[in-house]
Design goal:
171 residues; mainly alpha
Length: 171
């Protein structure tokens, strides 16, 4: 009996928290679907390759609202959406690698960050090319932190963003 109550409370808290993190959860995952999606449905859609679902699941892990913050899972999901050309996922991934979020700053200070300015440059470039205005601004700022050799390597890598191998998604 106690386990069932715990599972019910956990499910309720996850659903409520996920709805806060993902305002789009109250709308249809696919136009005309006609039903709200649960967290499990979003994750299932992400596993099927839906770039929007992958982005939203990645954001939920990145933000840590409603579920535990998990940078590795955020990166894995954002990467999957990013290589499909999802510009918001590209921007979000660049922000993680560029250490442009307060939480990632705290993780770096604790030795658990994922700062990689070359990767940040790649994803800001990809998002910028697709019209994400903030990505261009962030990329310009980021370029000031790279030396000539790092910038040259990042520019070469930026031409191959669609072939990036994403880290595995943990179950």
């Amino acid at each position: 009996m106690g386990a069932a109550v715990y599972d019910y409370k956990t499910a309720f808290l996850l659903a409520a928290g996920f709805a806060l993190v993902l305002p789009a959860c109250t709308s249809d995952l696919l136009p005309g679907a006609g039903a709200r999606k649960t967290r499990a449905q979003w994750i299932a859609a992400a596993h099927r390759g839906d770039a929007q679902a992958q982005y939203l699941v990645g954001e939920s892990y990145c933000c840590g609202r409603g579920i535990a913050y998990n940078t590795d899972r955020a990166i894995a999901w954002q990467c999957r959406a990013a290589v499909q050309g999802h510009r918001d996922a590209q921007y979000a991934l660049a922000n993680i690698y560029g250490n442009r979020q307060k939480l990632t700053t705290r993780l770096l200070q604790a030795g658990k960050g994922h700062k990689n300015l070359g990767k940040a440059y790649v994803w800001y470039t990809a998002a910028m090319v697709q019209g994400h205005e903030a990505a261009g601004v962030e990329r310009a700022e980021l370029m000031k932190e790279l030396d000539a050799q790092q910038l040259a390597a990042a520019r070469r890598a930026a031409t191959r963003w669609s072939r990036v191998q994403c880290p595995p998604v943990e179950s």
